[in-house]
């Protein structure tokens, strides 16, 4: 790929030279090992409440720190984990690690925010999901009020009756539920009135061109007002530019996530950069 620079020169980007990609069978064996050998790592991305300027939540996002290939992003191994069934032990690892990290932060008296954990459709459909989750919560000693599960519309639509039972069980425990990538699933809005949902996360694809595309703006606006009417939090995902933030403020969006505030970062980095913000507003300008 090439990009035009200001002085009309062409800068060429070379693909990163990496070892031959392993076959999916090899990858599966390696991923199985990775889960057991602690090669997975959680990064955290803050969610900011616009009315107060305060961080209210950290989303845990898994990475695979591969001994030879380096840091592998989730989009390159979550699909394989879902196909192979490894998503179940992987998801348990993620939930346990996020709970343990939250307990560590509580004990250290820092980063007093909720922690959001992504739950894939396969994981959510597992009949033991809620029992396993509750077991991990009890084992780690986390107060479930600090925990949010991010699920997608496709998780919800697969087995509606079962979904209601699972969500109510989690909700009774005190766990919050958010709908991730809201607006891109092929689902009816009917579920919103039956299910205990705390938050809608507007998919990044709508937020991306909010400042230049009136359809994206209209959809974002509609989701925000739907959220207000249903009395749930609305998060705009993927906010990268101030111009997007300004529009989101005007459309009365309650919370944002995105590179403008921070990309997902390591525990070390989030402790370094956000500890100082504890209980003080974060200024973005
Ligand atoms: P997601 O849950 O919708 O997470 C948001 C993704 O958007 C993250 O990518 C994040 O780095 C990226 N992002 C955040 N802000 C911006 C922005 O301003 N601009 C752009 N261009 N991107 C932004 P990431 O970490 O690569 O994760 C991708 C997806 O992988 C996640 O989408 C989620 O569906 C899945 N995933 C990540 N961690 C887990 C996990 O622990 N379990 C499961 N089941 N899925 C996970
Ligand atoms: Mg998410
Ligand atoms: Mg999302
Ligand atoms: Mg996603």
Automatic annotation (TrEMBL):
GO MF: cyclic-guanylate-specific phosphodiesterase activity
Protein name: EAL domain-containing protein
Organism domain of life: Bacteria
Lineage: Bacteria, Bacillati, Bacillota, Bacilli, Bacillales
Chain ranges of the EAL domain: 24-278
């Amino acid at each position: 790929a090439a990009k035009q620079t200001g002085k009309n020169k062409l800068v060429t980007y070379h693909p990163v030279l990496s070892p031959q990609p392993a076959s999916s069978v090899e990858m599966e064996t390696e991923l199985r090992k990775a889960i057991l050998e602690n090669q997975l790592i959680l990064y955290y991305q803050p969610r900011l409440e616009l009315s107060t300027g305060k961080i209210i939540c950290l989303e845990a996002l898994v990475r695979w720190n591969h001994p030879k290939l380096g840091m592998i992003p989730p989009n390159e191994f979550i699909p394989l984990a879902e196909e192979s069934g490894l998503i179940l032990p992987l998801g348990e690892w993620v939930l346990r690690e996020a709970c343990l990290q939250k307990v560590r932060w509580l004990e250290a008296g820092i980063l007093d925010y909720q922690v959001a954990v992504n739950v894939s459709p396969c994981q959510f459909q597992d009949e033991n999901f809620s029992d396993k989750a509750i077991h991990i919560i009890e084992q780690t000693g986390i107060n479930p009020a600090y925990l949010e599960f991010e699920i997608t519309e496709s998780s919800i639509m697969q087995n509606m009756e079962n979904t209601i039972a699972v969500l109510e069980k989690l909700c009774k425990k005190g766990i919050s539920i958010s709908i991730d990538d809201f607006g891109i699933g092929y689902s009816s809005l009917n579920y919103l009135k039956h299910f205990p949902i705390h938050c809608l996360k507007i998919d990044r694809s709508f937020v991306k061109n909010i400042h230049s595309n009136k359809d994206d703006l209209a959809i974002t606006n509609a989701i925000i007002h739907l959220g207000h009417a249903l009395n749930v939090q609305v998060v705009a995902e993927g906010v990268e530019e101030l111009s997007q933030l300004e529009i989101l403020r005007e459309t009365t969006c309650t919370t944002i996530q995105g590179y403008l505030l921070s990309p997902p970062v390591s525990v070390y980095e989030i402790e370094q950069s956000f500890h100082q913000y504890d209980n003080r507003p974060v200024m973005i300008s």
